Amino acid sequence: MLGMFFQGSGQEEPDKKPEQVRIIKKIELTDQSGGEQEHKKDGGQETSTFFIEPSAGELVERLAGLDPVELDEKAGELPGLKVMWPLYFFSLTKLNNGSHQLLLDVAEDGFGISVLCDVDIKKYPQISKVKEGELLWVAGEIIGLIPDGTGQFLLKTEQIRFGGTKEQPPTAPVYQDGE
């Protein structure tokens, strides 16, 4: 599946010109949040690599034209892909088990692809002060996809970064209280 997203279908048509090779954008992040951190054997901080591209929109678009059998097969291959996407905040919900869930969207107006993810409010206490429509960069692992409607991704959150622009994530994962 990832080969399909990163390399195309793999089938070349004789009359068609070869497509240009697209560079996949990745980012490496080190957990600097101040919470409990995993350390490498050499004593350094744990670093994770996340794909900035393909975006949520690109993934849903590539799945849109598939028949139901292919859709189930290809969507089932997405879990495990680590991504970092710019997303707009819409709500924070406390669940019955005491955990918290974020509802985010790729569109500033909230009418795009939505993303549901868990959040540790002890690690990110400032999340309770985020206003609707504020941009966040969320890094995590795709754990599910609901392709119905505009589409919805489920992410297991690894890092949240506040601020930045739609094109460039901020360099620090958190801001201090009062900023």
Which residue ranges are poorly predicted, with pLDDT under 50 across at least 5 consecutive positions? 1-14, 16-24, 32-43, 174-179
State which percent range the strand residues make up: 25-35%
CATH topology-level name: OB fold (Dihydrolipoamide Acetyltransferase, E2P)
CATH superfamily: Nucleic acid-binding proteins
Could you please describe the fold and organization of this structure?
With 179 residues, this protein is mainly beta. It has a single domain (2-8, 23-30, 43-162), classed as Nucleic acid-binding proteins (OB fold (Dihydrolipoamide Acetyltransferase, E2P), Beta Barrel). Helices cover 13% and strands 32% of the residues. It has helices at residues 2-7, 56-64, 68-75, and strands spanning 26-30, 47-51, 82-94, 100-105, 114-119, 135-146, 152-162. Strands 3-4-5-7-6 form a five-stranded mixed β-barrel. A two-stranded antiparallel sheet has the order 1-2. A hairpin with an 8-residue loop joins strand 4 (100-105) and strand 5 (114-119). The longest helix has 9 residues, at 56-64. The N and C termini lie far apart (42 Å).
